[in-house]
Amino acid sequence: MEFESLQRRRSSSVSANQNNASIREKRPKRSEVIAKNKTIEELIKTARAEKDHLAPFPDFRRFHVNGLSVCLKSGHGNKLSSPVKHYIQSLLKLNMEGPYGSEWPEEEKVKRKEMVLPEAHYVFVHEVANSNADEMTTVLTAAETSTCLEDSGPLVGFVQYRFVLEEEIPVLYVYELQLEPRVQGKGVGKFLMQLVELMAQKSRMSAVMLTVQKANVLAMDFYINKLRYIISAMSPSRVNPMDREDELDQLDKDGSSY
Ligand SMILES: CC(C)(COP(=O)(O)OP(=O)(O)OC[C@H]1O[C@@H](n2cnc3c(N)ncnc32)[C@H](O)[C@@H]1OP(=O)(O)O)[C@@H](O)C(=O)NCCC(=O)NCCS
Predict the structure, then answer these.
(1) Region Disordered: which residues (predicted)?
(2) What pTM did the predictor assign?
(3) Predicted pLDDT of residue 157
């Protein structure tokens, strides 16, 4: 299966790449390299230990758009209930069996293992039951709008992400972004990616990365043309043009920072 690795990288990393020549001339001391690696390890450790990455962004807990009202909840791979695990598996199958084709059975096994790992972080999207987007804003109190209540409506999608080291760069890696077909095309995906980028910035990650199958034309269009992610220099397709995987990366729209 062909993939693209996409990435949105902070400008500091980009300018570092642009200055490769001067870096070569003046190699950092071993002690500086060790200190830098230690700092990066600490960043990742701290980000992974954070219990609720949504907490600093109360305005993102709820989203009303195009007649749809959703609220968001954080989750962890090793704390998923059986119904949630089942939901994730079903939605993955629904959305991804087509793009993966004959490779799906093998890929499904990999995804089942990945989804429950302790380093897998989640943002779950719940539909707010019986909501009228316009009325919601006036009926709910400030406290209510900033939380996703236990009795919130059904799950309609999720993002699964991790904090990892990619080629010595600390990144927030989006493993999955999955929405039910009935809530796609309403702005939820874009909203979730904005949130994920803010989380990456808050945790001082240098980039947001993800992998898309080339056959998933709509998702490629979403990331590259709508969100302006770019194909990462680390993408398998850059090494082997026949590879069907592409890792994507997104440069800042204004060339500054997230
Ligand atoms: C890909 C996905 C996450 C995008 O999320 P979404 O909520 O549907 O996308 P949004 O509504 O936020 O769309 C953002 C932009 O992309 C466009 N877009 C999104 N889906 C589109 C589609 N199917 N066809 C055409 N345009 C689309 C929207 O028009 C919008 O453009 P605008 O900003 O100019 O108005 C979602 O469609 C999905 O879950 N797809 C199935 C699973 C999948 O492929 N995931 C990605 C795997 S890497």
Answers:
(1) 1-30
(2) 0.83
(3) 98
